[in-house]
Amino acid sequence: SALKKTKDLLRTDVRDLFKSGEILDEAKLEEFHRGLITTDMGVEASEEVVESLREEFGGRTVDPDAVWENVKNTLKEILKGDGSTNWDPENPLSPLNMATEGPTVILVSGVNGVGKTTSIAKLANYLTKSGKKVVLAAGDTFRAAAVDQLTKWSQRIGCEIVRKDPGTDPASVAFAGCDHAVQIGADVVLVDTAGRLQTQQNLMQELEKIRRVINKRIEGAPHESLLVLDATTGQNGISQASKFSDAAGCTGIVLAKLDGTAKGGVVVAIRKKMGIPVKYVGVGEQLDDLQLFSPDDFVEALLE
Ligand code: GDP
Q1: 15, 133, 246, 287: which has the fewest C-beta neighbours closer than 10 Å?
Q2: Torsion angles phi and psi, residue 153, rounded to 5
Q3: What global pTM score does this model have?
Q4: Is the minimum distance from the CB of 152 to ligand 1 under 6 angstroms?
């Protein structure tokens, strides 16, 4: 499964620490804490897990299965937060706030290399397969290769793409994409944005400008603002994320590359530190490798 590496780590560094009949003392709890940290769950969440165990079982003889259940419950509670993540597992589009009338605009941001282009393609594929008419706005005008890649994806998916010359103001591409979507009666516009980090200040201003411009063309837009993070960067991705979340007005996270990392615990840290829900996870390089994020399923799969 996509979570294999994180799972293996939890098994060896956490689960296998406890044997039936053993006493759950402070030394064990400390080991447990270290194990949780290695999955990039973050200090706060790890402490919360350990605290719950201490309260429930501290200093007593422990059944490893009961410990495992307790961990699961704490993690689920953290991930569910205020309950806003209770979307319909049968409907991959349920986490998305759709416009009641006219095109829904979804802004997508993220630093170069995190998997932004691929994630946009996967989302466009989901939406198209669900019968939505999709327009891509190729706003990452600083990377000609990214625009070409997105164009290839659009051809495979069978959705439209609005692109302009390299170096064009990304906001103008975003506007044109929205405009085209209104003209042709499209359901969704996915707006790609630039992700070059060396000029962070400009990047944030650019994102704010894109939001203003989109909003001028389509009332209430953007309806969603998804930030793509790379799961393999673990905790490092979070500091990046907080910078984006203000400028882009993030409403959700797409956590790409969750396959191939033992840092899957970062999902928990993101929820804990940022308060923004992970809505989708990327689990491979193909169009179908995007999953709706479900706290229950995630925790059950992780602590199987
Ligand atoms: P961008 O620079 O942020 O637009 O990143 P790309 O979408 O071009 O992705 C960078 C690399 O990561 C590419 O080789 C993708 O195939 C790969 N990639 C993207 N998402 C995933 C994922 O969920 N899992 C895996 N294994 N690879 C991914």
Answers
A1: 246
A2: -60, -45
A3: 0.92
A4: no
- Which segment of 113-127, 184-198, 240-254 scores lowest on mean pLDDT? 240-254
Distance, C-alpha 269 to centroid of its chain:
12
> Is the CB of residue 289 below 6 angstroms from any atom belonging to ligand 1?
yes
Q: Which residues are annotated as a binding site for GTP?
A: 110-117, 192-196
C-alpha span between 208 and 249 (Å, rounded): 9
115 lines ligand 1 (CB under 6 A): yes
The pair of structure tokens assigned to 119 is 């994630």
Q: What interhelical angle do 236-248 and 200-217 show, nearest 10?
A: 40
Nearest CA-CA partner of 134 in 169, 180, 94: 180
Residue 116 Cβ < 6 Å to ligand 1: yes
Residue 48 near ligand 1, beta carbon < 6 Å: no
Comparing 171 with 262, the larger pLDDT belongs to: 171
CA-CA distance, 164 to 93, in Å (whole number)?
29
In a mutational test of the pocket of ligand 1, which residue from 226, 285, 290 has the highest number of ligand atoms less than 8 Å from its CB?
285
How many A from CA of 117 to the centre of ligand 1?
A: 7
CA atoms of 274 and 252, how far apart (whole Å): 10
CB 232 within 8 A of CB 38: no
Return left, alpha or beta for 249; rule: phi > 0 is left, psi -120 to 50 is alpha, else beta: left
Give the bridge partners for 65, in sequence order: none
Alpha helix (H) residue ranges in 228-292? 236-248, 266-274
Asked if residue 257 has its Cβ within 6 Å of ligand 1, the reply is yes
> How is residue 133 written in tokens?
């008419």
Residue with token string 């797409």? 254
Cα(222)–Cα(178) distance, integer angstroms: 10
**Which pLDDT band, with edges at 50, 70 and 90, does 131 fall under?**
very high
| Residue 256 · residue 230 · CB < 8 Å | yes
